[in-house]
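Lecture notes, unit on binding sites. The following record was shown on slide 14. It pairs a sequence with adenosine-5'-triphosphate.
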Amino acid sequence: MDIEVAKDKGKEAKSAAESGPSHFIRNIVTEDLKQGKNDHRIHTRFPPEPNGYLHIGHAKAICLNFGLAAEFNGLCNLRFDDTNPSKEDVEYVESMKTDVRWLGFDWGNREYYASDYFGRLYQFAIQLIKSGKAYVCDLSGEEIREYRGTLTEPGRNSPYRDRSVEENLDLFERMKEGEFSDGARTLRAKIDMASPNLNLRDPVMYRILHATHHRTGDAWSIYPTYDFAHGQSDSIEGITHSICTLEFEDHRPLYDWFLEQLNIHHPQQIEFARLNLTYTALSKRKLLQLVEQGHVSGWDDPRMPTLAGFRRRGYTPEAIRTFCERIGVAKRNSTVDIAMLEHSLREDLNKRAPRVMAVLRPLKIVIDNYPEGQVEELDAVNNPEDPSMGTRRVPFTRELYIEQDDFREEPPKGFFRLSPGREVRLRYAYIVKCIGVVKDSKSGEITEIHCTYDPETKSGLSQSARKVKATIHWLSVHHAVEAEVRLYDHLFAKEDPEDVPDGSDWIANINPKSLERLTSCRVEPVLANAKPGERYQFERLGYFCVDNVDSSPGHLVFNRTVTLRDTWARIESGGKRR
Ligand code: ATP
Ligand code: MG
């Protein structure tokens, strides 16, 4: 994997991110506009196939297509490439619209469907048949493959290649009328069975498929292939720059061939490297498998790299857009370190997420010298990065919760938090000292810690500047609100989910610890009415957001969006990866 390359790109893109780093596609567009090509227009499109949910790879293509159009005063269409009825669904269409909008892009009234062009594509096919450039072939799929040849051997002409125009027109119409069974015949372009480019060896343009389409119903029993539908759809919409991923580079001669033969508006196809991310599978087919086999709770499971998953996890559209800008656009495939995505997210959340205290694994402490029944409202800063976000009050009482992790009965070397005889500062409050530990007589488990506090150490009082080695967070037992917190880790345990020993399945790389549910957490009382989707920083723990599916006022559920530890910043500064 080519992580180093992506890393360098991140560095160089960092300073340029605000102005937008230049890349070869932006340069092509700039040059075309300067030359007055396409009447000084730029018109792009984002063309997903509605056979799954959009993922972070699509975000790269969305940002590129919509971003360039916006930058150069052009337009970008949303086009559903719905030519394969057996795998497509309206649920996917709706989710894709939601996701593109969420990312912050607008296609105006230009919501198009390749299926809207079925009539015109059919006419284009007839035009090609009439000019002797297409023929109906009776070879089976298997036979077509055999006849195609290999990279080193030329293919052989189909025995049906020289059918007359009349016979081709007649058979093609009967294919359309549903007279033949699935797979019985195809319509093929007549190009060159000896071409070094396999895509030009008489590629299939139409196949017979008696399937109900989510938009056209049973109107059609033939469907165009991607290769035939795509370029012609681009042309119909007046697209100027048809931007797609590298695997279509070898299809470009075919893209161009159809448009030249038909003599219609000819957009320019430009290919760029798709996004690959460490610890992440990016393919709708694979993601569908995760959903169908129940490895995740659905397309919007917060561990999924879908935009719906990221949204539920607490990612902001701004962070994803910044990330897409930073990774740049190149002609060479590489893999980007997921830490870079998390870095963009932390940067954004750091600015906007209010800080609160939450205790994930509560341990009760009792402050013996603090008056019973007394409640002090202490001032806490909402965001040290942004004073305009103000302060809030946090109730302090005699009985508090702290994190189990913040106490050690026998502290190892270097542990500076609470332990018997030692002091820590409670955030926004007092310095306390541990004077006793209560254990369950049977299990030996620690059930309660006893402390004393120094009343002069509160902010503004005589000892407030007194230094101790650690500050920990806490909550008042009687005021804290119960919550469930879900901690996530990478869905795959391997950087490359595909990296499996021969004979085993990539599913084996799923990280068994990718989800940990903590059900007896506590959060500050201000969160009692937190709304789905709201994002917070739980001090010292990470960024969290209210789950938009399972959380309700009586049962708060938070997702950990990302921890505070920034591995990307460390990589950039030359430190070690974790
Ligand atoms: P998938 O394998 O996930 O289904 P796809 O390319 O088949 O990917 P489409 O729905 O056809 O999915 O993609 C719509 C657009 O998004 C295409 O232009 C495609 O090139 C682009 N795209 C898809 N995956 C990525 C990716 N990982 N990085 C960048 N662009 C992508
Ligand atoms: Mg696809």
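Take-home: The two ends are 17 Å apart (CA to CA).
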